[in-house]
Design a protein that fits this description.
Elements (H helix, E strand, L loop, with lengths): L27 E3 L3 E7 L5 E3 L4 E10 L4 E9 L18 E2 L5 E4 L4 E10 L11 E11 L4 E14 L1 E8 L8 E12 L4 E4 L4 E8 L6 E7 L5 E7 L4 E7 L8 E2 L3 E3 L3
Length: 262
């Protein structure tokens, strides 16, 4: 009976008990098997709000005998922050307990897929946002196998929100318009949204009847994520805030607020 190479992957944040750091383990290939690609969450960053987020990870592999099975592990190791004080330095999302679903595209090549769930209401903390490594193992029908501890990386981000409000409305031409707003992001420790402090955010304007926004100025968020600035009003159009994003927080645009200039 064919058996997988022994590999301890936990489904909770308890970590990889008994494992040394990944650097102590070399990538391994036995036989002619090759991993030709790994895709996490459709190639997009993993953006989590205050509810569970389930994503898929898939690997394409090839071997003359055909592909039998695959397994994956998403992790952050001792070279990153460990908010859970795990002595081994690993944290992992909950994985699907079912085997990976492998679909053959030919007699030698298959794509295997598995799901993982990030759970802010159980183990995920705000400090977990950032770059995660993606490990993969694949097995062929002739017992060839390949293992990569960090085949690629993915980015785990805290979902962001941004608002904009321009006043007064309407306004006389040439008078001063005040634009306020707030930049917040998911807090996985408190399961709500909190202001994102001291972040540069662009104020943008789109003239009525056009489709393109132009940056007017940049302002920084306050200690509570609030934004405020003033500009002279000369023509009808839409005002919005634009945040470019960071490694832990995705980019976001506020909905444009229309101002009638009279």
């Amino acid at each position: 009976m064919r058996k997988r190479v022994a590999f301890a992957v936990l489904t909770t944040v308890a970590g990889l008990a008994g494992f040394a750091v990944p650097g102590a383990y070399a990538d391994e290939t036995v036989g002619d098997i090759q991993i030709t690609g790994v895709v996490v969450n459709g190639g997009k960053s993993i953006v989590v709000d205050t509810a569970d987020k389930t994503i898929t990870v898939s690997a394409t592999a090839t071997d003359p005998s055909g592909i039998w099975d695959a397994d994956f592990y998403l992790w952050r190791g001792p070279d990153g922050t460990d908010p859970h004080d795990n002595p081994d330095g690993y944290i992992l999302p909950k994985e699907d307990t079912a085997p990976a679903d492998c679909v053959a595209s030919s007699s030698t090549t298959s794509t295997c897929t598995k799901t993982f769930t990030f759970e802010p209401d159980w183990w995920l903390t705000s400090a977990d946002a950032g770059t995660w490594k993606v490990g993969v193992q694949v097995w062929a029908n002739d017992d060839s196998r390949a293992e990569r501890w960090a085949y690629t990386t993915t980015r785990l981000q805290r979902h962001s929100k941004l608002t904009a409000n321009a006043s007064p409305e309407p306004i006389a031409k040439g008078k001063t318009l005040t634009i306020t707003g707030k930049l917040t992001r998911a807090n996985w420790d408190t399961l709500d949204y909190r202001g994102y402090t001291n972040q540069p955010v662009k104020l943008q304007f789109r003239k009525a009847g056009t489709t393109t926004y132009t940056t007017v100025k940049t302002a920084n968020t306050s200690s509570t994520g609030n934004l405020t600035t003033t500009v002279p009003a000369y023509e009808d159009g839409y005002w919005r805030w634009n945040f470019a994003g960071t490694s832990t927080t995705p980019a976001v645009n506020a909905t444009g607020d229309f101002v009638d200039v009279q």
